[in-house]
Design a protein that fits this description.
With 104 residues, the protein is mainly alpha-helical. The chain has three helices and no strands.
Amino acid sequence: QDNLGKAVVSTQSTGEELAVYKNPDPAARKQSLREQYNRKILEQDNLGKALRAKQKTVREQHVPNVAQMAMWRDLTSLLACKTNILSKQQQKELDTGGENILIL
């Protein structure tokens, strides 16, 4: 009897779906399962296309970005060396009394 109940419900829902599908009103058709699934499939296709395009740009830009990161690290280490040398030079000037001494 449980299978009979499921069959009756399935038949009713199929009949309701056919009634919605045959309805000439476009607003009512948007409520049909077929239209809902088609809309979801289209949304997922568009999302997949957008993700593939983004993945392509990431792949194309990966090597240049890695090179730029290496250059940035080199620049920061160079600037750190310059500030270190400058601070040592200033400390040395303070130790010598700030006088410019020419040694021959």
